[in-house]
Write a structure and sequence with these properties.
Number of helices: 12
Order of helices and strands: EHEHEHEHEEHEHHEEHHHHHEE
Shape: elongated
Helix content: 40-55%
Radius of gyration: 27 Å
Number of strands: 11
């Protein structure tokens, strides 16, 4: 997982101006692999729809993933025939690689992609990109799982899609509903900040991009779509599932260890209401209280289980001390990451040391409660011991939160960088193997734009092929 590039500060989201007629506002990428038959009707239908309904200038870019049939020639003919169509040729397969290559080099402020089979009804395209053009959202995705969506597909793909999204919700706490729909858009400034952090070059690219964007605090807009399954599509279930699960594990591990620089992307003051200072309202207090209560409840259950287990072998004071020590370490780690948003290993030892001091206070309260109980009677029932410990832990919890907030994890939000003006867009991601390729620019007949071809070693300078719904033959979702 790349950790050498920080997202930095994004400019304020603003409504995009109409601009010059020759400057595209939207660049729709169609990644393809061996789609010589489906590509022409796909491009012509998409072009007709955009020309008829889209109020801004646009471009359609065919991104060929190393096709071995006549797809490159078909794409070249389409680019020569339609001014708004361009092509890019990559010598390596991978939908994510194709999208990253074109998006990194595009000059359009809104970037989108869709599958070549056009399973998604094109009437959802304008609602997809409108929130990005208006400045309301950072990314937009089509969702086949929204209540208002109308979907026609077989039980196998339905099961795969829903199972995969349940895995994402359970493992990565994803809140978006459909990671796999080949119908997405992103603002260029956001893409330039996030693409260097996305490692996958295949099918998992979409999911990884969405998870990182969500964890960075960016706004993801979902559009219910009408979607009809392509009957000719096939899914390599085992291979696709294996690669996706590997990706989920890799991203989850990186997020858990804090190795990604994903503290919420800063925007200028006023663009995000969470950046505003409100008199008399402590910064982040409500969210921290909720997180602390959840962690505290789970920690209490964990503590009681440990105490009951230790109590079978040792006395109540020793069992209490051991259970409280183990649960305190886990509690500090959980609150550090989940409640107070501290990522990375920096300061972890100091935080645990301070947490042990807080643990000592809790130990004094609970041990004192047990001592008082034992002094009141010779042998208290186990249920009575648990009741006393619960009451003592509730008192210790309030004090623990105050100490965590004020001492162990003090709020550093107020000491962060001052609001800044919109920064210049960062340079496109630098690829390991730089090879230039010509992009037929929209509105021109032979204008070329140099692309740094994503991780390719032999990108050609001829017109580029067509549009994907799979970068691997038959490997579709």
């Amino acid at each position: 997982m790349r950790t050498d590039s920080s997202p930095g500060t994004l400019p304020a989201r603003e409504h995009l101006p109409a601009g010059d007629a020759g400057t595209p506002v939207l660049d729709v990428v169609i990644p393809v692999y061996n789609e010589e038959k489906d590509l022409p009707p796909c491009v012509r239908r998409l072009h007709e729809h955009l020309a008829r309904t889209f109020p801004y200038a646009f471009r359609i870019t065919i991104a060929d993933n190393a096709s071995t049939d006549t797809t490159p020639l078909v794409a070249a003919r389409l680019a020569a025939e339609i001014p708004e169509v361009g092509t890019v040729r990559l010598e390596q397969k991978g939908r994510g690689r194709a999208l990253r290559t074109v998006w990194s080099a595009s000059d359009a402020p809104v970037l989108a992609y869709m599958d070549v089979d056009l399973s998604t009804d094109l009437n959802a395209l304008l609602p997809l990109v409108a929130p990005l053009i208006s400045g309301h959202s950072d990314l937009a995705i089509g969702s086949r799982l929204a209540r208002a969506s109308r979907v026609v597909r077989g039980p196998k793909r339905e099961f795969i899609s829903r199972a995969y999204n349940l895995i994402l919700r359970g493992s990565l706490q994803a809140r978006f509903s459909d990671a796999q729909c080949g119908f997405k858009a992103i603002r260029r400034d956001v893409a330039q900040a996030l693409l260097p952090l996305v490692e996958d070059t295949g099918w998992f690219f979409d999911t990884e991009l969405l998870v990182l964007a969500e964890r960075a605090g960016l706004r993801i807009h979902e559009v219910p779509v009408d979607w009809v399954d392509d009957p000719d599509s096939t899914v390599h279930i085992v291979r696709t599932a294996t690669e996706d699960l590997k990706g989920v594990w890799r991203v989850g591990k990186a997020l858990a260890t804090g190795s990604l620089p994903l503290d919420r992307l800063a925007r200028p003051f006023g663009d995000d209401p969470r950046d505003r200072e409100l008199t008399g309202v402590p910064h982040g207090l409500a969210r921290q209280l909720v997180g602390f209560c959840v962690v505290g409840g789970l920690s209490t259950l964990f503590y009681l289980v440990l105490y009951s287990a230790f109590r079978q072998a040792v006395g109540p004071q020793t069992a209490n001390a051991l259970a409280l020590l183990v649960s305190a370490v886990a509690n500090t780690a959980a609150n550090r990451r989940l409640t107070f948003g501290v990522r990375g290993r920096g300061g972890a030892v100091r935080h645990q040391a301070q947490g042990l001091v807080v643990f000592g206070i809790g130990l004094a309260l609970t041990s004192g409660s047990l001592a008082a109980l034992n002094a009141a009677g010779d042998s208290a029932a186990h249920s009575t011991e648990l009741a006393v410990l619960i009451a003592a832990n509730l008192a210790a919890t309030v004090l623990r939160f105050l100490l965590f907030r004020a001492w162990v994890f003090p709020d550093r939000a107020h000491t962060g960088p001052a609001p800044t003006a919109a920064r210049p867009a960062p340079a496109p991601y630098a690829w390991p193997h730089q090879a230039t390729t010509h992009l037929h620019a929209a509105g021109t007949t032979n204008a070329t734009t140099h692309l740094q071809a994503a991780e390719t070693t032999n990108a050609t300078t001829q017109p580029r092929p067509a549009c994907p719904h799979s970068t691997d033959p038959g490997d579709t979702r």
